[in-house]
């Protein structure tokens, strides 16, 4: 796997190469993802994701996936309680 070189832009980071298509216009952005359900639900904010502007694929790096798993396993040390409104689509 190649080492990625990131260049700062105002809102995103530009990656040299997308691991999926090999194009050099991938962008790193931050997303919020939910894991689990009910009382086991955890929301992880500001998770970095790579998005290729060429092929349209989005993916987490191995490093990010390892950190997500670490947060999920030790969530009591990483989380704070927040109350949020929840709606059902149906």
Describe the structure.
With 90 residues, the protein is α+β, with helices and mostly antiparallel strands. The chain has one domain: Roll (Ubiquitin-like (UB roll)). The protein is 18% helix and 32% strand. It has a five-stranded antiparallel beta sheet, covered by helices on one side.
Could you give a quick summary of the protein structure above?
With 90 residues, the chain is an alpha+beta fold.
Let me know the average pLDDT: 83
Total number of β-strand segments?
A: 5
Instruction: Profile the largest sheet.
Output: 5 strands, antiparallel
Helix content percent band: 10-25%
**Strand-pairing-aware structural class:** alpha+beta
Strand order of the largest sheet: 1-2-3-4-5
Number of helices: 2
* CATH second-level architecture: Roll
Distance between the termini: 44 Å
**Domain tally:** 1
In the CATH scheme, the class would be Alpha Beta
CATH fold annotation: Ubiquitin-like (UB roll)
Low-confidence stretches: 1-10
C-alpha Rg (nearest Å): 16 Å
Order of helices and strands: EEEEEHH
Strand content: 25-35%
Gross morphology is globular
Kindly list the characteristics that best describe this protein:
Ubiquitin-like (UB roll), 5-stranded antiparallel beta sheet, alpha+beta, 90 residues
Give the topology.
Layout (H helix, E strand, L loop, with lengths): L5 E3 L4 E3 L10 E10 L6 E11 L5 E2 L2 H12 L1 H4 L12
Antiparallel strand pairs: 1-2, 2-3, 3-4, 4-5
């Amino acid at each position: 796997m190649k080492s990625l070189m990131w260049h700062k832009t105002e809102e995103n980071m530009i990656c040299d190469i997308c691991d999926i298509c090999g194009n050099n216009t991938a962008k790193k952005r931050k997303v919020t993802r939910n894991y689990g359900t009910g009382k086991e639900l955890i929301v992880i904010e500001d998770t970095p994701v790579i998005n290729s502007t060429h092929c349209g694929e989005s993916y987490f790096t191995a490093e990010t996936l390892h950190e997500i798993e670490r947060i999920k396993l030790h969530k009591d040390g990483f989380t704070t309680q927040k109350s949020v409104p929840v709606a059902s689509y149906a």
